[in-house]
Amino acid sequence: MSTPKHARSLLTAVVLAACASAAWSQEIVLKVAHFLPPGSTAHAKFITPWCDKVNKESAGKLKCQIYPAMQLGGTPPQLIDQVRDGIADIVWTLPGYSAGRFPAIEVFELPFMTKTAEGASRALWEYVAVNKLGQTEFKDVHPILFHVHDEGHLHLVKGPIKSMADFKGLKLRAPTRQTNKFLAALGATPVGMPVPQVSDALSKGVIDGAMLPWEVVPSVKVHELVKFHSESDPKARAVYTSAFVFAMNKAKYDSLTPELRKVIDANGGAETSAWAGKIWDQSASGARKLAVERGNQFNTIGADELKKWEQAGQTVVDSWVGEVSAKGHDGKALLKSARDLIQKYDQQ
Asked: Is residue 106 a contact partner of residue 176, using CB atoms and an 8 Å limit?
């Protein structure tokens, strides 16, 4: 005997409701991968609290399994492909580790752009949004947030850097393509490498020092391997910073219920980007204190000397404008967009 039409409709509605309820009640484990150890700021103060908040706001439906220090295999530059391909569900990484692949976001890594990580991170999120980089450079992933780190400084084995002349003959680690170019413009020999390789390179004499923010120094024990720290005038903009992305696999995001996608969305965007940046700002002083306690030596590079560095760095800026313009962007417009947003949000 055939089922009456209204009964079939009712049955369909019940089944769909049951399926939706099952989807909502099922715990979903998100594999979250990054390249630093568990004791790092990124793991302990950013990723773990973020995961805890998402778990709470999803009523326990979203749970993270965090894989620090490349525990899923591969190298730090491969993280962005791991999240694209679904090896990881979420990754925290530097787009700049994939040299030349994300040129438009590199504007934030040019010399003397930013001041605070909090303000610059908010500016970075808006820069990506207004210039539609989510539909171009980051179209293969679902960006949750973007941020930058606290001011980058120079950490040296043999002696301080007080002027541009001191760069000559030094092999210095740089994190990204733009900082490599900047070190070369200053007269050093740049050696590009991800953070996890820095300790080994310092201990073996492969490099004479490294460009790093204070925040990450303790997690890779740089303060134990160098004796000198050259910092820029605190009133000046940062010598450099690096851009980070916290990104999710697109298929994984799309597979979530609307309610769970809302939880992810509520823990991303401009406010959460600024929150991440603030964590890096706040972590800098404690990290620096460890170097002070070891009796390491510090010097500050004054404003007049930094003007010479900025002049040398202008070649890096001009090169970036030309390069991204050749790839179809309006390089001058992107540079103005970044500087205007940094001025808006990062005035400290």
From this structure: yes
The ranges of the chain with pLDDT < 70 are 1-25, 348
Q: Which helix (H) or strand (E) holds 66?
A: strand 62-67
Q: Token pair for residue 124?
A: 């970075």
Amino acid at 341: L
Q: Which two tokens stand for residue 79?
A: 């993280």
Residue with tokens 């492969």: 206
Residue 205 in tokens: 């004499």
Q: Hey, which residues does 212 pair with through a beta bridge?
A: 153
**Whole-number pLDDT of residue 21:** 47
Gap between the Cα atoms of 245 and 210, Å rounded: 22
Q: What is the 3-state secondary structure (H, E, C) of 286-326?
A: HHHHHHHHCCCEEEEECHHHHHHHHHHHHHHHHHHHHHHHH
Query: Which pLDDT does position 20 carry in this prediction?
Result: 47
Separation in Å, CA 225 to CA 211, 262, 298: 14, 45, 15
Q: Is the dihedral of CA 184, 222, 195, 301 positive or negative?
A: negative
Parallel/antiparallel/unpaired status of strands 189-192 and 243-248: unpaired
> Under 8 Å CB-to-CB from 177, ≥6 apart: which residues?
96, 99, 100, 106, 109, 192
Residue 52's CB: how many other CB atoms inside 10 A? 12
**Whose CA is closest to 215, among 193, 242, 188?**
242
Angle at 43 between CA 203 and CA 228, to 5 degrees: 35
The tokens 């979203």 sit on which residue? 62
**For the chain, what is the radius of gyration of the CA atoms?**
23
Q: Does residue 316 contact residue 111 with C-beta atoms inside 8 Å? A: yes
Length of the chain equals: 348
Kindly report whether the global pTM for this prediction surpasses the value 0.85: yes
Please tell me the predicted confidence (pLDDT) of residue 9: 59
- Which tokens go with 281? 């700002």
